[in-house]
Amino acid sequence: MKYDQILKELKANQYKPVYFLHGNEPYYIDQLANFFEDNILDETEKAFNLTILYGKDIDHKQVVDQARRFPMMASHQVVIIKEAQSMSGLQQLQTYIENPLETTILVICHKHKKFDGRTKLANVVKKNAVLFESKKPYDNQMPAWITSYLTGIKLKIGPKEAALIAEYLGNDLGKVANELDKLAINLSKGHTVTADNIQEHIGISKDYNIFELQDALTARNHTKAYQILKYFQANPRNNPLVMVVAALFGFFSKVYLMHTLRNAPDREVQKVLGLPTPYFVKDYRKAAQQFNRRQTEKIIHLLKNYDLKSKGVGNASSSDQSMMQEMMYHILSV
User: Fold this and answer.
1) How far apart are CA 26 and CA 28, in angstroms?
2) Domain extent at residue 90
3) How many CB atoms lie within 10 A of CB 63?
4) 110 - beta bridge partners?
């Protein structure tokens, strides 16, 4: 079952006896666990009917004993097992899940990894419980996720600004959500998030970031490229060499593909390049005009070498700052 569907049913007071939440993205598991904890029971009911257990502290017998209790002065009791991946005897919950108590809502939170679907317990869960897998989104899905999240908290954002946040914050949804909440705290509802807002409240520079660097390289604007480079060198924590190399490698790899898609429509280019929206296609068309295929190949090869150097391979003493300076010189000299 999907996340939105589970929430919809819970909000409609449609409960199942067992929910098994698993996967490598903790954000959705935490969100659902919080909903079960905060919204199923009222404050007076929680005193006797809400139990939170932690996997490393319990075994299956304690869970079953708790789940077999009847609720007190409430229609249901809620039992939440957090960090179930650390629980001793998790597989032995199979018997309970085959025949659960209808007045108990048992929520099993198995975080940070996918549960093995080949086990007997997995087969029983699929048949008798609500099974939800929380998947970590791909990087190219993050701008859309950010846009959707901001829409949910009554803010708007353009594709370039959403991509900027995604590039710098990655796909850790908990981390991204925390940063986006800063915008909600400081901006009025209905506001369209700008690069200035992002710089002020999240701390990502609107003028000196990886997208501005890509634009400067595409325009072969040496002055602007070196200004951004100087900012990166002064702020290595937010702009480490390994991240800059990876971002530029991704950019020029797409530019290389663009050479095979010159006459393709924007929607096809978006799909092949894995872009979040067609909005960015124009950037790659422009870059492909500035860097021919041979030049692009040379830059990709160059970036592969600097990727290795940034990880200590074939680099005895050069600092990240000096390697970044050297790399920029070679790219602009191609």
Assistant:
1) 6
2) 3-133
3) 24
4) 22
Q: What is the dihedral of CA 59, 61, 67, 72, to 10 degrees?
A: -110
**Residue 54 φ/ψ, nearest 5 degrees:** -120, 130
CATH of the domain at 239: 1.20.272.10
User: pLDDT tens digits, the chain, 334 residues: what are they?
Assistant: 899 999 999 999 999 999 999 999 999 999 999 999 999 999 999 999 999 999 999 999 999 999 999 999 999 999 999 999 999 889 999 999 999 999 999 999 999 888 888 889 999 999 999 999 999 999 889 999 999 999 999 999 999 999 999 989 999 999 999 999 999 999 999 999 999 999 999 999 999 999 999 999 999 999 999 999 999 999 888 889 999 999 999 999 999 999 999 889 999 999 999 998 899 999 999 999 999 999 999 999 999 999 998 888 877 678 888 999 999 999 999 8
From CA 120, how far away is CA 175, in angstroms rounded? 35
As a residue count, the chain comes to 334
Token pair of 226, please?
């070196």
Q: Are residues 123 and 227 in the same domain?
A: no
What is the C-alpha separation between 36 and 79, in angstroms, rounded?
A: 9
Same domain? For 246 and 282 the reply is yes
Spatial CA neighbour of 165 closest among 134, 215, 201: 201
Q: Domain count of the chain?
A: 3
Pair (223, 271) in one structural domain: yes
23 contacts: CB under 8 Å, gap ≥ 6: 29, 110, 111, 113, 114, 132, 133, 134, 135, 136
What CA–CA distance (Å, rounded) separates 19 from 28? 13
